[in-house]
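Give me the fold.
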Amino acid sequence: MKRFFKPIEKEGSAKKPSLSSDCASTAKTEADDGVALSDNENENENEKKDLHPLKFLTWNANSLLLRIKNDWSHFSSFVQTLDPDVICIQEVRIPAAGAKGAPKNPGELKDDTSASREEKQIVMRALSTVPFKEYRVWWSLSNSKYGGTAMFIKKHLQPKKVSFCLDRTGSKHEQDGRVIIAEFESYLVMNTYAPNNGWKEEENSFPRRRKWDKRILEFVQCIDKPLIWCGDLNVSHEDIDVSHPDFFSSAKLNGYVPPNKEDCGQPGFTLAERRRFENMLTQGKLIDAYRFLHKEKDMDSGFSWSGHPIGKYRGKRMRIDYFIVSEKLKERIIACEIHGHGIEREGFYGSDHCPVSLKLSQEA
């Protein structure tokens, strides 16, 4: 989740809709992993088409490089114990490959300067160790140290196709690297980092978030397979999903009050965002996996984002990281857990978000 204390940077229907396109075209290179896999990989996939990922993990790392430098051994042990088939990361915050002024390749880490080469080496060394060497990684990166997503998939469970845009055109990436979609035989797995709603209409953050929500709604209405959608969705659906509803619903930035009451309050907890999210779930026939299993409010372990332990956000927490699944999959949900707890951010591994996991049963 974007820090709440700063305004967000400016960034550029009920019937079955065609998807709005808002993807950034990229230079096509051999490193572009979008679209179909190679012939050999497809042959291997056909041989193992009855194998599907069943265990998933999502985490907003709030800078993957910083986590690798400071908390990686603990996170590695956690991943090794949980042994997920798919790991989805948001806020990678590593720039896309490409020299200044040149076309960027969001599927590759930047390495055209001595500093970026060193950073890339640090990341690749970390990913070459247990347990991460068991995964293949796909990246969708921003042009700067902002945003970005990654998806790690066990090598023996490779997807039929990976795309990086809501219209599922493999050679395109969403702006700021906000989407990765892996297609398996039985379902889609989508990793997203939703734009923060921000505090003010004038800063273009409200329109940006409305546009994003509209495109997500169109996507969930158009897909032809069941969906497992995870990531930092930057919204707390109901009062039960925040620690202090009154605090968040009345929050202001420097005393500013938006003209529309539905836009008032903490980004991620405005009525407008929550109602749009509810509409996505209803129109897309989707289930919030965590809330499906956990009906009661959990003040210790029921939130995935926690405010800084020092200051007015101490102890203020939100559930904004999700696993959303198609209703067709709900009877297969075995577990959905939030792995951090407490106002001191235990189990957050240095981020302001903690990991969330999902486990499904085998198809009957």
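The chain has eight helices and 19 strands.
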